[in-house]
Amino acid sequence: MGENASSLLYLVTIATFILALKFLSSPRRARLGNWLGAAGMSLAIVVTLAREGLEGYGLMAIAMAIGAVVGAVGARRVKMTAMPQMVALFNGVGGGAAALIALAEFHNLAPEPGRVGADETVAILLSALIGSVSFAGSMVAFAKLQDLVSGRPIVYPGQTVGNALLLALAVVLGVAIVLGPQEEWLLVLVLVGALLFGVLFVLPIGGADMPVVISLLNAFTGLAAAATGFVLHLNVLIVSGMLVGASGTLLTILMGRAMNRSIANVLFGAFGQVTTAPAAAEGADGRSVRSTTAEDVAVMLAYARRVVFVPGYGLAVAQAQHDVRALADLLEERGVEVKYGIHPVAGRMPGHMNVLLAEANVPYDQLYEMERINPELPQTDVAVILGANDVVNPAAKEDPGSPIYGMPIIEVDRAGTVVVVKRSMSPGFAGIDNPLFYDEKTAMLFADAKKALETVIASVKDI
Predict the structure, then answer these.
(1) Which of 1, 76, 208, 449 could make an S-S bridge to 320, C-beta 3.0–4.6 Å?
(2) Quick check: 277 pLDDT over 50?
(3) Contact 457, 384 (CB under 8 A)
(4) Burial code of 42-67, b = ≥16 C-beta within 10 A, e = fewer?
């Protein structure tokens, strides 16, 4: 395929990526956005394979077949609870690919003196450095989410200074490559230093902040891909990488705002080191909670005028999204108005609850973001908390000494009655107690979300 034809088709690919991002901003058109993005990527692959001078089709076919099988199996078999881990894993693979491409290009070009210009060397170094950090950091995020390592911050004395020195050393080595002899072993040292920095960068970050970290690492991968585009002289890779980098950066900033915390605090605050959770149904100061039964909850819901469900990670763990949809349908048949309050950082990745409820075909117009649902909660008869914790914790509003003080929450404590469906009194990812559980208007239904909802559904049918 000629250069002009490939450039034109790459332009079509870029347009599909931009439109895909636009459509992904709306739940109603998100599926179309995914299809557009997939079509654009397919076109980019075909055009790249048809370019003149390309060799090694056999090896590429084998690699693509392996990747296709892994992707298809992962998409179909990975449970919704493991989706954040899969996102982190796939994101890391992208960063690792960028770093390997940079190393391969340097290996091919560097032996000939003067063949690699300063601008190309800088692009190779950026791709290798950022891609390696993204790969290693994403692997640590995966391990934390998969409980392979502790989700709590893992800190050591002088970690900030140590990380800064390690990153500075990698940068100095990179400058030496640009200014001095283009030795491949120096680039390997840069890769090793960046990989170590990526590990040490994410280890001190607690599991509660993983949604923000995943967004940031996604932005890193986009920047690494854009740098790789400069290395390979591919405009489509430059533009698509910058789109990912920009959108990931914006999402990171928005997630930080949703928690009322700066990105620096998320990355360096070691949030969640201390656990102050009670082990039983009684607080440390003698406060007690009021337990309830599924039958009593069914009566509350059946005779309510308005019910708001607030989903959290516990709902995903129980795979109970279809059950809450079934309960909502049953209540609507009785004339109850049903809505869902969605907190932007509920779950373990951006949009986790939206994806979870979309899987159960919950109508989009029933999903209310935090800013829209809060004004309606004072007129709500029953707010049902399904596996959420930190995103409904009143301490964020009332306790200046709380680690989450200032974080915007879904203000379920303003509803007439609050029902918390939870397996135990264990804390959320933030590792702190929740005063909502001891509120006199709160009733605790201690059970797995799926089993609890199934029992409530059966009881509502009997009313």
Answers:
(1) 449
(2) no
(3) no
(4) ebbeebbeeeeeeeeeeeeeeeeeee
Nearby residues of 31 by Cβ (< 8 Å), 6 or more positions away: none
Token code pair at residue 258: 């949703």
Please give the order of strands across the beta sheet that includes 382-386. Answer: 367-369, 337-342, 306-311, 382-386, 417-422, 442-446
Phi, psi of 67 (to 5 degrees): -60, -40
Where do we find the tokens 């079934």?
326
DSSP state of 288: B
Phi and psi dihedrals of 56, rounded to 5? 75, 40
Q: How large is the angle between the packed helices 294-302 and 321-333, nearest 10 degrees?
A: 40
Q: How confident is the model at residue 270 (pLDDT cuts 50, 70, 90)?
A: low
User: Token digits for 448?
Assistant: 């797995």
**How far, CA to CA in Å, does 105 sit from each of 66, 136, 178?**
23, 21, 15
Secondary structure class of 321 (helix, strand, coil): helix
Q: How confident is the model at residue 430 (pLDDT cuts 50, 70, 90)?
A: low
| Residue 32: partners with Cβ closer than 8 Å, 6 or more residues away | 23
The tokens 């698509």 sit on which residue? 240
- 67's enclosing H/E stretch is helix 57-77
Looking at the DSSP assignment, which residues form a beta bridge with residue 445? 421
Residue pair 311/353 in contact by the 8 Å Cβ criterion: yes
Query: Quick one: pLDDT at residue 278?
Result: 39
Query: For this structure, is 390 an active site residue?
Result: yes
Q: What angle do CA 233, 214, 203 make, to 5 degrees?
A: 110
Burial 415-432 (b: 16+ CB within 10 A, else e): bbbbbbbbbebebbbbbb
- Predicted confidence at residue 265, as pLDDT, reads 67
Q: Which of 300, 292, 358, 349 is nearest to 324 (CA)?
A: 358
Residues 6 or more apart from 365 whose CB is under 8 A from it? Answer: none
The pTM of this model reads 0.78
Q: Three-state SS for 236?
A: helix
Q: Could you give the C-alpha distances from 24 to 82, 343, 355, in angstroms and in order?
A: 21, 18, 12
CA angle at 126 for the pair 191 and 94, rounded to the nearest 5°: 75
123 vs 116: CA distance, rounded Å:
11
Please provide residue 247's backbone torsions phi and psi, each rounded to the nearest 5 degrees. Answer: -65, -40
Residue bearing tokens 């693509």: 64
Is there a contact between 129 and 228 (Cβ–Cβ < 8 Å)?
Answer: no
From the list 340, 314, 315, the residue with the least C-alpha distance to 328 is 340
pLDDT-derived band of residue 147, with 50, 70 and 90 as boundaries? confident
Pair 54, 46: CB distance under 8 Å: no
**Torsion angle, alpha carbons of 119, 121, 125, 127, to 10:** 70
pLDDT for residue 219 is more than 80? yes
Catalytic hit among 323, 390, 413, 433:
390
